[in-house]
């Protein structure tokens, strides 16, 4: 899942990014207000970690813009300000959570995970589609024949598909979500095809039906069991 870290303190940003990367998140960073605005307008994220005090602007204005444009990203505010008014103001503007600096990185990661579960999976830790079971807390996948070993990117791809179940997702959206804007696609999607092919093969070997369908000229769709029975 892709996370945007909007924080001007580079040491803190780098620490957050390194920790979340170990937790299987694809991370991008914006160190100032204008870069943050450009990214939130151009890309979509599973969660945005947002500092209030930024060079050249206020992080709350980015939050206002997100909500005005009806974007679906979850927002976790991080701030050195510990006043109740600041916290209530951010939450009333539409933030999903608020964490006061200094904080422990495991707590930050837990809150990011909780926001994503609420936004994409109705707060559930375990997502089940027929014989396929995805445990978001343990980051494990199980099929009818038992555990299914996936690489990090295969797991991330499965989570992305299941967060967009029965929706067509483009190859471009998959690349942006799993690799961020730090990769030069160059209109070559061979690595996307390879990841999808391997994920589909492993799921079927694990005793799951073929949920992943190619939609010609558009992208891919992870089909729910209910739809398959119609």
TrEMBL record:
It holds the Pfam family Response_reg. Keywords: DNA-binding, Phosphoprotein, Transcription, Transcription regulation, Two-component regulatory system. GO terms for biological process: regulation of DNA-templated transcription. SUPFAM superfamilies: C-terminal effector domain of the bipartite response regulators (SSF46894), CheY-like (SSF52172). GO terms for molecular function: phosphorelay response regulator activity; transcription cis-regulatory region binding. Residues 2-116 form the Response regulatory domain. InterPro entries: CheY-like_superfamily (IPR011006), OmpR/PhoB-type_DNA-bd (IPR001867), Sig_transdc_resp-reg_C-effctor (IPR016032), Sig_transdc_resp-reg_receiver (IPR001789), WalR-like (IPR039420), WH-like_DNA-bd_sf (IPR036388). This is DNA-binding response regulator. The keyword Nucleus does not apply. Residues 124-224 bind DNA. GO terms for cellular component: cytosol; protein-DNA complex. The keyword Transcription applies. The modification 4-aspartylphosphate is found at residue 51. Residues 124-224 form the OmpR/PhoB-type domain. It comes from Puia dinghuensis.
């Amino acid at each position: 899942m892709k996370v945007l870290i909007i924080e001007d303190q580079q040491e803190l940003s780098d620490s957050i990014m390194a920790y979340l990367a170990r937790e299987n998140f694809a991370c991008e960073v914006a160190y100032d207000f204008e870069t943050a605005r450009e990214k939130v307008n151009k890309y979509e994220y599973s969660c945005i970690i947002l500092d209030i005090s930024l060079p050249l602007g206020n992080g709350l204005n980015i939050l206002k813009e997100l909500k005005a444009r009806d974007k679906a990203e979850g927002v976790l505010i991080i701030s050195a300000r510990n006043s109740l008014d600041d916290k209530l103001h951010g939450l009333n503007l539409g933030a999903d959570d608020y964490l006061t600096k200094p904080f422990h990185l495991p707590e930050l990661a837990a809150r990011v995970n909780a926001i994503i579960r609420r936004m994409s999976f109705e707060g559930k830790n375990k997502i089940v589609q027929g014989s396929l079971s995805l445990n978001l807390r343990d980051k494990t996948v199980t099929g009818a024949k038992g555990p299914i070993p996936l690489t990090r990117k295969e797991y991330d791809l499965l989570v992305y598909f299941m967060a967009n179940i029965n929706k067509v997702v483009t190859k471009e959206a998959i690349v942006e979500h799993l690799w961020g804007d730090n990769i030069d696609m160059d209109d070559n999607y061979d690595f996307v095809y390879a990841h999808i092919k391997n994920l589909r093969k492993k799921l079927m070997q694990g005793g799951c039906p073929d949920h992943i369908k190619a939609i010609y000229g558009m992208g891919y769709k992870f089909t729910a069991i209910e739809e398959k029975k119609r």
